[in-house]
Write a structure and sequence with these properties.
TIM Barrel, two-stranded antiparallel sheet
Amino acid sequence: MEDKLTLDWRPHSWQSRNAGQQPLYSDMQAVDRVLAEIHQRPPLVTWGEVDRLRTQLADASRGECFVIQGGDCAESFDDCTAEAIANKLKILLQMSLVLVHGMKTRVIRVGRLAGQYAKPRSAEFETRNGVTLPSYRGDLINRSGFSTEERAADPLLMLRGYEHAALTLNYLRALIDGGFADLHHPEYWDLDFVRNSPLEAEYRRIVDSILNSLSFMETISTRPISEGYRIDLFTSHEGLHLLYEQAQTNHVAETGRWYNLATHFPWIGMRTADVNGAHVEYFRGISNPVAVKVGPGMDTEHLLQLCRILNPHNEAGRLTFIHRFGASQINERLPAMVEAVQRNGRQVLWMCDPMHGNTETTASGIKTRRFENILAELEAAFALHAQAGSILGGVHFEFTGDDVTECTGGIRGLTDTDLERAYKSQVDPRLNYEQALEMAMRIVARKARKRSAVS
């Protein structure tokens, strides 16, 4: 039976609202043909998977498990290769292994992948050497090369986006079903270029501890712990390009609800979180768990309006706020937001994105993020939620399996001068493998210090 609160909603209802950050196509008939073709194709995820994630996110909101969400800032079609996909999965598995071991809790793995092909931009146009062209908005919309043809919005790229997302998901599922994620074989997750990492010894100690525990439990139970074991891996992306999202929105007769079956966990970015805007209107009608990026530009009333619109039944697991203030503002801005949500009895899962609020530009004009600022915001988030009697239920990182130098700091002490050595991102800087793994270890170390202080 259809939810009474969404009887006035349909996947296209958003089109009556102001829609920011949308591409301008020159041939709308071509757009309609592409969207019709995508709508007829099989869904990328199933509604059963979506509902399972929603249940698990409800657990995380109560502190019964922890969410790690991560992947590329913006996926590239060129990186839809077996090696690139496997490396992202390896990082997510290794980080979650460290968190499970150190936090002694279940971890929900959410990849920022298989659909993160569109990005909001702060400026409509970009100028180089006196030439002005539309900004690059991700491979779903246009191309990164700087020519009139490449920067034109191309509707066929939506079809390519669907296909690349399907290829990525197919390979991820094959890896997981084929035993790649079996805890007995963490060597499958090694990345060759980091075998001499300063973190290797600590990571090996964690792996050995887990393998010894598995061996002990299997000796007692007389059967493999991994028998029937299969990890859940969920996908997420910013639901930015509304025509693309609409084309993959389906009504499910079994539940009587609408689902976005392009991903398990779509989110609204800070630039498109207007309560009267098209993105909030679209998101209110889908049954997926949804997230909103929360930053300095929002006040507490804005947050509460989002709660009322996106989670009218006040259900646990439905709505996540991913806060991203930056290390310099989190102490000032977060407490009031947490207090307002608590005072109004709203069910929310809180996550911290310590990446986006800490972006800066070097003297030579390179966009970067400093490891110490990312860590400082994350440390502050844990502390502020604890002080408020709230729960920080997850973290949201941008990272890559490539051996890049895009963020400074970390265990190797990368500096601004190192950035030019291997800077590959077309949009925002990402943590490399070592920095991502170190961040997971720092989270665990903080939890260990907290346990020691209590005891």
